[in-house]
Amino acid sequence: MKRFPVHKRTLVMLAGFLPLIALFIYVALRSGALAPVPVTMARVENRAISPALFGIGTVEARYTYRIGPAVTGRVKRLEVDVGDPVEAGQVLGAMDPIDLDERIRASEATVQRAAAQVNEAEVRHGYALAQARRYQQLLEARTTSEEIVLTKKNEQQAAEAGLNAARGEAARVRAELEALLAQRKNLDLVAPAAGLVTARHADPGATIVAGQAVIDVIDPAHLWVNVRFDQITAYGLAADLPVHIVLRSQAVEPRPGRILRVEPLADAVTEETLAKAVFDELPQPLPPLGELAEVTVDLPPLAAGPVIPNAAIQRLDGQLGVWRVSDGDLAFTPVTLGVAALDGSVQVRDGLKVDDQIIVYSARALHPRSRIRVAEHLPGVKP
Amino acid sequence: MISLAGRDIMHSLGKFVFTGLGLGLLIGITLSMAGIYRGLVDDGKALLDNSGADLWVVQRDTLGPYAESSSIHDDVWRGIRSLPGVARAANATYFTMQVRQGGRDVRAMVAGIAAGAPGTPGWPPYLVAGRQITRGHYEAVADIATGFALGDRLRIRRNLYTVVGLTRRMVSSGGDPMVFIPLKDAQEAQFLKDNDAIRQQRQRTGENPAFNRPQVPGLLEAVIASQSTNPYVNAVLVQIEPGHEVAAVAEAIRRWKRLTVYTRSQMEEILVGKMIATSARQIFMFLVILSLVSAAIVAFIIYTLTLGKIREIAVLKLIGTRNRTIVGLIMQQAVALGAIGFMVGKITATLVMAPIFPKYVLLQPLDSVIGFGAVMVICLLSSIVAIRAAMKVDPAEAIGG
Amino acid sequence: MDGKGVRIEGLKKRYGRGDTAVDALKGVDMEVAPGEVVGLVGPSGSGKSTLLKCLGAVIEPTAGRMILGDEIIYDDGWQVDDLRALRRDKIGFIFQAPYLIPFLDVTDNVALLPMLAGRPNPEARRMALELFKALEVEHRARAMPSQLSGGEQQRVAIARGLVNRPPVILADEPTAPLDSERALAVIRILNEMARQFETAIIVVTHDEKIIPTFRRIYHIRDGVTYEEAGEGRAIA
C24, C30 in Cβ contact below 8 A? Predict the structure, then answer.
């Protein structure tokens, strides 16, 4: 009986120190390098995945007409401005003729002069012909010499030649006049097709060299998205595949469309495959040209097969694979992967079977001798 | 025989526990300092481990890509890929900048990872949530140290990125958490200036008569377009085929005239030996000072505890207590104090200091073992000092004048 | 002597050496029979404390003879190796103040001595409790020293002095802090204990309240003792 209080004292002391000791042991074993690695696991599922491709691009006009003069000149007047719709054949503006009108008038005068010369030549030819005929008759009546007949014939031929020359000259100056007139018509800037004016590069008075564009017109009914896909993930890209297009300014509304064509020339510098995607229905109001768009191509779904999340894929000693847990043992299993979907699922072609248990997330890098502790989700990570 | 030490402890339990706690906090801080030092070195190595690379190819004569800025053309990797012994080669960019999310911004190292699939050099080797990047643009994988969650929209320069995956312990050598984004977006982010600067540059180019020639339509647009692209990356990460010598492949790459190649051990030397050397030295000095101070305080405490009992010790000696019983009293108390202090210290360091300290605190079991040994040695040595004082006490002092 | 009691013959104690030497004891003779309680009276500086320290085997005398029970413990040199064991087993101490170990309960304070002598704990505690009964403090057996009154503490101290049944007990001013009623009570207890356990008790004191109770008194002056018969007044 007298011994009891002593024991009680000891018990009280132990009770006080026991939590400390327990906490210490917990800390020693559960944290730091001795602790097992928290991991989460998943089952290899049998699913059909729908692969998709993702690329970004810019909205562009399919047809852009850059209208400018064929010769260097000055802009005289412009009838349209940016944003105006135009019809096919509409005159949008004109270059300054400068001295062209005067040259046309000069040419017209020359044409008239050439016509007059033709008249003169015709008259002379008529007279020479009549003379040649009369003297021929006289020769047959033996009232003139052969020599005079020959001279008259000569004159007739000369007059004929002169007439031909005059006619040729008239034709030439007429052609020159037509050329100047054609040039005059060329000074008009004409829209080759109906569309929308998108740029006005110069104002009246500016000097433009031949080939420089003054007005850009696009066909707003034909916009496309010039898309770039990383070559390494562009497997399966083909024309007529359905796409979703998300414009940067309208981030929440994906618009349906399709791939119009895959460009035969890829971009070797940026290692991207180029393609053109068109909207099924043009968004109204029209998106500005150059706006960025994200294009997702839906590839046809594949047959069901073993599928794993891409977070599980790791590389160990140069081999690509996943950490598999079978019968409580951890083993790195190399796998051959197939197609991937944009949500992170990847098809497994070889290495795993459906219902195999694999590690998806781990709090530290794993080694073949790691001790693991399976959890619902990792500590410190909100689910 | 009863345990005098135990009885004394229980009689002044409050004082003892309080002293143990105080000592424990001091030991805890010392252990944490060791942990901070180890964490600093680990930060340097984490970057290298996580990149998964055997070789780093950088601009010639630079210590890049982490210690120094390095710029190489982004098609250099193709030449490297075709060399014998190279299993994989991928471009990578690294750029430390502020990443904005919601109302706050976080300092992070933005890493550009080459297009491809998990397992490409430079990709995060494992995740703690979400998935790896599948789209070629505008997706990001962030380290949880940034505080971002899955689904957050990050603003890096002018683009918005959705966080699709989370990692742990992916940090730069300076301890900044990493954010992985597709390489092309990273190239643009690293290079692209803000809109004002771009406008000014276009204007300057337009005013330059060499570029703005009316006889050559399209020249100005072409020049401006070339100024808006960035064909450079910071490094090429190379993985070697098994069975090939790392040094031999490195040498083969070095023969390319304008490139420098580092192996894993050389990179470690650069990072640990150069980049974090100063901080590491500072922390190590603190650790040494703190340890000495802790030792002094432990010795002082044990000595004071003994001196407080000096009269009882004289009485004990007078009534015939053996020396070794008195020595046992002092030494047992010192060891008990040390043990309690160490346990409190280890618990404090693990559960309090490590989570709240802004840098990574790596507490290794070896450090704890060494710490425990050191605490015990200090306790025993300081108890010897106290024992000498106790032995010198003349029992006759108990008998008055 | 019949194996008990204490005897001192010609004890000398010199402090220091040469010119600065001080002779605290110049040849002390003393004899106390078992069961006897004698007083040791003298002014300060008379060598009283020195004599006590020599008797208590705390300091070494310079010359002389000390006999404890039937053992010669000092004969111009210590005759025993382990002085501490000697003190533990053969000499009991009662100080001015109880000097109890504060972190042991009063039973263990007293039982400590038999435990140190090698007795098992239960037996040691039993020995302590026996004395507590005799000293009428057994109702406080489980208390800590700080919970006892001064008088109770003093009785525990007395029990500690007696527990190993030493042949001699040295009491140094045991009544100094007490009033006359309690002082006489202490002396009464000492007398009873001395009789019961056949112990020789030497009480160093200058307390006028208790000096009349001694049958024999040793006066000490300048290092020499003089025996005197005391009043031997009975204690109520």
Answer: no
